[in-house]
Write a structure and sequence with these properties.
Helix 4 packs across helix 5. The protein is globular. The mean pLDDT is 92. It has a single domain, classed as Ribonuclease H-like superfamily/Ribonuclease H (Nucleotidyltransferase, domain 5, 2-Layer Sandwich). A five-stranded mixed beta sheet has the order 3-2-1-4-5, with helices on both faces. The longest helix has 37 residues. The protein contains five helices and five strands. The chain is an alpha/beta fold. One of its GO terms (molecular function) is crossover junction DNA endonuclease activity. Its cofactor is Mg(2+). InterPro entries: RNaseH-like_sf, RNaseH_sf, X-over_junc_endoDNase_Mg_BS, X-over_junc_endoDNase_RuvC. It comes from Streptomyces wuyuanensis.
């Protein structure tokens, strides 16, 4: 499975592509950051994020896109920009018919480090180890994007089984009603 991970942000949108399957060594295919100027108009910034994500989708042809689920933060301006960048990533994937998975920051941290309360340094260190890199990707947004992709690869099999079980339950329930 090839997954494009997106750590959404308007100033720095982390992007990482990981390939592999759960239980086997994973391979990083690319990592980077789409940057926009903080003083640029919001529309121009969103277009720049879209162009950057589209370039990554064209270059790496992922089967799936994993995006960090936006949650309420103390700074409303920050959460708005994050939500807007997240929506752009989901839109780019939807245009191509690619499935999108949303993962919370604590879910990603727990999957990669074993603790949902891990700090950025711990996430970066584990991403480096898991992908057999020479050094942690910089900035942290890039490492976070790779962590999202890793999280999805590892959790997708269990999520798929759960979805099939729920669908089977609903199909059986519908026949007996």
């Amino acid at each position: 499975m090839r997954v494009l991970g997106v750590d959404p942000g308007l100033t720095r949108c982390g992007i990482g592509v990981v390939e592999g399957v759960a239980g086997r060594p994973l391979t990083m295919l690319g990592v980077g950051v789409v940057r926009t100027a903080a003083d640029a108009e919001i529309g121009d910034r969103l277009v720049a994020v879209e162009r950057g994500i589209e370039e990554w989708l064209d270059a790496h042809r992922p089967e799936m896109v994993a995006v960090e689920r936006v949650f309420s933060q103390h700074n409303v301006r920050t959460v708005m920009g994050t939500a807007q960048a997240s929506a752009v990533a989901m839109l780019c994937a939807a245009r191509r018919g690619l499935p999108v998975a949303l993962h919370t920051p604590s879910e990603v941290k727990a999957a990669v480090t074993g603790s949902g309360r891990a700090d950025k340094a711990q996430v970066g260190a584990m991403v480096t180890r898991l992908l057999r890199l020479d050094a942690p990707p910089k900035p942290a947004d890039a490492a976070d994007a790779l962590a999202l992709a890793i999280c999805h690869i590892w959790r997708a099999p269990a999520q798929n089984r759960l979805q099939r079980a729920v669908a089977a339950h609903h199909a059986t329930k519908g026949r007996t009603a």
